[in-house]
Amino acid sequence: MTAPAITAPELEYVFQPRSIAIAGVSAKEHGGFGGIGFVQSLQEVGFRGPIYLIHPTAPAIRGLKCYPSLADIPWDVDYVISSVNARFVPQLLEDCIKKGTVRVLHLFTAGFTETGEAGRAEMERAVVTQAQEAGIRIIGPNCMGLYVPASRLAMMPGQTPEPGPVGMVSQSGMNAGEFVRYATPRGVRCSKVISFGNGADLRAADFFDYLADDPETKVITAYLEGIQDGPRLAAALRRAGRVKPTVILKSGRTEAGSRAASSHTASLAGSLEIFDGLCRQAGVLRVESLDDVVDMAVTFQFVQRLRGPRICVVGGGGGASVMAADDLDAAGLEVPTLLPETQEALAKVTHEAGTSIRNPIDTTSMFEEKGFEATLGPVGDAENIDAILYHTSFGFGFMSRMGDQRQRGERQSEGLARVQEQSGKPVVVAIRPSLTPEALDQANYFQEQCYRRGIATYPSIARAANALSRLLEWQQMQD
Question: Cα(325)–Cα(173) distance, rounded to whole angstroms?
Answer without folding.
Answer: 38
